[in-house]
Write a structure and sequence with these properties.
The chain is of the alpha+beta class and about 450 residues long. It has helices at about 5-25, 35-45, 45-50, 65-75, 90-95, 115-120, 145-150, 160-170, 190-200, 220-235, 245-255, 265-270, 315-325, 325-335, 355-360, 360-370, 395-410, 415-435; strands spanning about 25-30, 55-60, 85, 125, 130, 130-135, 140-145, 260-265, 280-285, 300-305. It starts with 5 loop residues before the first helix and ends in a 5-residue tail after the last helix.
Length: about 450
Amino acid sequence: MIKYNPTLIGVAICTLASSAFAQQTTLTIGTVNNGDMVRMEALASAYEDANLNIQLDFVVLEENVLRQRLTTDIAAGSGQFDIMTIGSYEAPIWGGNGWLVEMGNLPASYDVDDLFPSIREALSHEGTLYALPFYGESSMTYYRTDLFDQAGLTMPEQPTWHQVRDFAEALHDPGNNQYGICLRGLAGWGQNMAIISTIVNAHGGQWFDMDWEPQLTSQPWRDAIEFYVDLVRSYGPPGASSNGFNENLALFNSGNCAMWVDATVAGAFVTDTSESRVHDRVSFAAAPSQVTEKGSGWLWAWSLAIPSSSNNAEEAKKFIAWATSKEYSDLVAQEHGIAAIPPGTRISTYENAEYLAAAPFAEMTLKQMEKADPSDSTLDPSPYTGVQFVAIPRFQAFATVVGQQLSGALAGSTTVDQALNNSQQLVRREMVRGGYID
């Protein structure tokens, strides 16, 4: 008869458990508090269940805070994050600096050739991919069909900003908490400056001329900012200077905005029956043009990347490949419906008849993304690439300050002229410091 020693068995079990725990890898993921990323955090337990050696630690932050934290961490190489949520601006610059791990050697099942070429290019430096896209987007116009019908208005597929202003005036009813239009006013290079840059582009303006001289006091900039400030002050919600993407999404879904011009990714949320009170009364048009359609709608890809300072690059790449895969899209479709899968990254998504039937915003999303050209985004020639940003390292810093100036003009704490004069001076100073101009 074999006798078992309970003490030894207990020790063995504890040893095995301790060994398994010791082998577990924690991946710290810095991400933005947008709806698709919040959904990713909730669904990521499926990845942990299939990979018991992995624990995922999500740090979910407001966009401006996230960008500040990630920029500080990547520049210092402090290694606080294993995975970073970055975009089309950061990926090629940081990758070129050697701050990011290359995204090569992906499994054949990932089907990297299924990614839109424009998105792959936006996340690459000299042909090397440095991030994988979680979702891609342009911008477009959301509008309430019921309000337009009641007022006898017709939204063209390609509206101008002046038409949008006239529609906003006709539909503005603040006594009933109905505002003609909602636009970003929250300061930040990726917040108010995203929409403002496209308004400037549409008015024929640009950040720099071909000699890298700042153009913020040019007539197109003055026309665009005066128009923007007047439009939002006259027909927008109170406190608009504090509203970014998420705040305006909440206002639109609550029925408080007759129109909203913002990221195409919101299409899945404004039509979601569980989130939007107006899900059956919303339609879509192109982002407004004015003097030109060039640069009137942006191009962006929120993406996942690995900082070179991570000690867990191999495991981080496996998670990123899963979170940006067809498999993950299938999981989203299963849990939330096919219209909710991350948009704007894969060709196959827009070849799927089931998706196109379930997602009324898909056709306009695709049109806007195909129209956006970062290499030709301004009426007159410009020396930079990017639609709603300028793809140079200093842009993030000076555009944030410009955003603060223009948010102040919207709030009434300064005039448009003063805000633009201040912005011109500070941008020029930064360009001199960077060696672009004398």
